[in-house]
Amino acid sequence: MEYLHEIRELLAVPKDVVITTHRNPDGDAIGASLAMYHYLVQLGHTVNMISPSEYPDFLEWMQDVQRIVIFDEDPERSKELIERADLIFFLDFNAMDRIDKLGDLITPLPCTKIMIDHHLYPENCSDYLISDTSASSTCEMIFDFIDRLGDRNRINRTVAECIFTGILTDTGSFKYGTSPRLFRLVANLIEMGVDDYTLQDLIFNSLQEKHLRLLGHCLNRRMEILEEYNTGLIVLTKDDYERFDIKRGDTEGIVNYLLKIKNVKMAVFIMEQPTIIKLSLRSKGDFSVQEIARKYFRGGGHKNASGGYSFQSLRATVKILKDALPEYKEKLMG
């Protein structure tokens, strides 16, 4: 790993550290932030975590997740913590626009910045860049980061649970981005005390009644199968958001249900939010949704799991997607 000696020296002296991650943080973003937090506290650093926006409710069980400062809710406190930081970690994002207004505050600061991320095309916005696009998740990289610093003994059960959470959620319960190496790492986490059954129960079996009613609505009323392109589509409107009182995290995983259909090779979930249209794209096998997300929806991500957004109307966004499908027909039908 590049810069290892320099980073080890940086961390040898207690510092004011801020950890930040991307807007609308998922299990990998929060898992990586908390894993790094619990590790750095052991080294004697003063550590604060800042997220641009709220984390999903299904992560509420994680130890010290309540310590995360939400920029949208407390911008003044966030600004105060950032301005006094000696060191800032960028976790699970590759460009400053992923943290919105936080980026404007952080960019001009003279403090040291370290980025650890597994997405393609990382921006040159940190002093130290640790990038591995073959990694399943940023949490996998956090394990390696701590291990290569010679501190595997500091991956206690709490740190291991955070890392496992990020890996589990970013791989879709070990369906995407896996490798023999990853499963060996996960075996280490279980040996360190992670109860994988309990964590899966906490993460995936904490739904409210409305979540199942929303899922039923999506599959019964909002699902469209485009057989000529082996593509499934679910579209949620603003009215749906009001009817089901949809909050951040409530739609997590719904897109994956489309891939349960035998011949569906690509699944797209389009959500009409107050000021933006968001898209989640998933695929099976060798078909990559990353190019579609990047080319048409200002997004990106991974081969089988990407996201994007549109400032067009909902109708126009759906049309852009459908108009793009002929370009990929041969790959989708192959």
Q: Spell the H/E element sequence.
A: HEHEEHEHEEHHHHHEEHEEHEEHH
Describe the sheet with the most strands. 6 strands, parallel
Number of strands: 12
**Fraction in beta strands:** 15-25%
Strand order in the sheet with the most strands: 3-2-1-4-5-6
Global geometry: globular
Distance between the first and last residues' Cα: 39 Å
Radius of gyration over all CA atoms, rounded: 20 Å
User: Residue-averaged pLDDT, rounded?
Assistant: 95
Number of helices: 13
The helix/strand class is alpha/beta
Low-confidence stretches: none
Walk me through this protein's architecture.
The protein has 334 residues and is α/β, with parallel strands linked by helices. The chain is 38% helix and 18% strand. It is built from 13 helices and twelve strands. It has helices spanning 4-11, 27-42, 75-83, 101-106, 138-148, 157-170, 180-191, 196-204, 209-221, 238-243, 290-297, 314-324, 329-333; strands spanning 16-21, 46-51, 69-70, 87-91, 112-117, 128-131, 223-226, 231-236, 266-272, 277-283, 300-301, 305-310. A six-stranded parallel sheet has the order 3-2-1-4-5-6, with helices on both faces. Helix 2 runs parallel beside helix 5, helix 5 runs antiparallel to helix 6 (157-170) and helix 6 packs across helix 8 (196-204). The protein is globular, with a radius of gyration of 20 Å. The chain starts with a helix and ends with a helix. The model has no long low-confidence stretch (mean pLDDT 95).
